[in-house]
Amino acid sequence: MKKVLLVIGVILLLLAAAVIALLVFLSKMPAVPHDYTETVQTGGELEAAYLAMGPREVGYYESGSLNSFEKYEIYYPLDMARGDPLPVVVFVNGTGVKGSKYPALQKHMASWGFLTIATEEEFAWNGFSAEMCVRYLTALNSYRAEGEENIFYGKIDLERVGITGHSQGGTGVINAITEQRNADIYKAAVILSGGGNKKVSQEALLWDFDETKIHAPTLMLASTGDADIGLVTLEDMHSLFDNIPDDVIKVMARRKEIGHGEMLYYGDGYVTAWFLWLLQGDEGAKSAFAGEHPEFMANPMYQDQRRSLPDGP
After folding, report:
1. Torsions phi, psi of 259, nearest 5?
2. Is 221:270 a contact under the CB 8 Å cutoff?
3. Which helix (H) or strand (E) holds 264?
4. How far are the Cα atoms of 92, 157, 175, 181 from residue 266, in angstroms, in the given order?
5. Residue 222: exposure state from Cβ atoms within 10 A (0-12, 13-18, ≥19)
6. Which domain holds residue 212?
7. Residues 57 and 25 grouped into a single domain
8. 18 band by pLDDT with thresholds 50, 70 and 90
9. Domain holding 301: CATH number?
10. Each residue of 120-148: pLDDT tens digit?
11. Does residue 185 fall inside a structural domain?
12. I need a surface site. Which of 54, 121, 215, 300 has the fewest CB within 10 A?
């Protein structure tokens, strides 16, 4: 009997070790494939153009933080010193998806001339980590001490700041641009598969938000797979769209036949175009959404498109 119990104990220990090893392995797996810019299928020339890597080489910088999110993670164009101050895109984390799990997404955005910043925040719904990113960049942009090098001094354009977040991060985007101290700093926002089902977010999880306070131009993308698991339905998206004030630029659509997690990067061609239009004044990127026959509104990879451009089509 003792020998049988010993064997069972050894088996249980081995199983426990295997489970722990699997969890560790999964925790280190990227949430965004490193080659997604080459593998995601697109439905238009503009989408394909802006999904591709941009023309600039990218560098990385990180700094520790005494906050719960551990550190700030910054990607930036390596030729930053030779140009004008850079527009910013703040990334807000989804559930279980820290900044260190989607470096490919940040590198892609930085290659198009943005400085991006993310954290290791696990509870980003209230927008606090995004707020602290803005405060940190404000300090980094102005800090200059004799004998110390700060490559970001005077190189961050805080008049051109955008924000994007997926899932829980989508709720974080809404709160960052409506409730936090620097809410008015944002000139463009993207909500990916988030801020939708209020029974889940506000009633079950107590993640409050008020989309009627949104002032920044907002792109809302979700997947049809979101509705399949009860997270963001088409009704949720219409409600969010309708509740954003009518004097705000707003665009929405659902990507066909992908899952909730994949929406983090499948829409990145149009996410990049959105920020290039609103933060860099790129007319080609603007034409993806504006004009009489914009590509986005007829892209066969998407459905349920809506837009409201107060200044014209």
Report:
1. -90, 175
2. yes
3. helix 263-266
4. 17, 28, 24, 31
5. buried
6. 35-308
7. no
8. very low
9. 3.40.50.1820
10. 999 999 999 999 999 999 999 998 866 67
11. yes
12. 300
In the structure encoding, which two tokens stand for residue 156, read together? 């961050």
As a whole-number percent, the residues of the chain with pLDDT over 70 amount to: 87
Q: How many domains does the chain have?
A: 2
Instruction: Tell me: do 252 and 191 sit in the same domain.
Output: yes
227 in Cβ contact with 259 (< 8 Å):
no
Verify that 13 and 44 share a domain, yes or no.
Answer: no
Rg (CA), the chain: 21
**Do 172 and 74 belong to one domain?**
yes
Q: What is the mean pLDDT of residues 270-275?
A: 98
Does 246 share its domain with 128? yes
How far is 86 from 280, CA to CA, in rounded Å? 9
Whether 97 and 211 share a structural domain: yes
218 & 291 share domain: yes
* Cβ-based burial of 215 (10 A; exposed 0-12, middle 13-18, buried ≥19): middle
Angle of helix 268-280 relative to helix 103-111, nearest 10 degrees, comes to 40
Which secondary-structure segment (H or E) carries 107? helix 103-111
Residue 82 sits in the same domain as residue 16: no
Question: Measured between alpha carbons, how far is 71 from 67 in angstroms, rounded to an integer?
Answer: 8
Q: What is the pLDDT of residue 142?
A: 94
> Mind listing the pLDDT tens digit for each residue in 200-216?
776 777 889 999 999 99
Q: Do the domain assignments include residue 216?
A: yes
Q: Is residue 219 part of a domain?
A: yes
Of 171, 266, 188, 165, the C-alpha closest to 223 is: 266
Q: What are the angstrom distances between the C-alpha of 257 and each of 45, 94, 115, 181?
A: 20, 20, 31, 38
Residue length, the chain?
A: 313
Q: What is the per-residue DSSP string for 117-131?
A: EEE--S--TTSHHHH
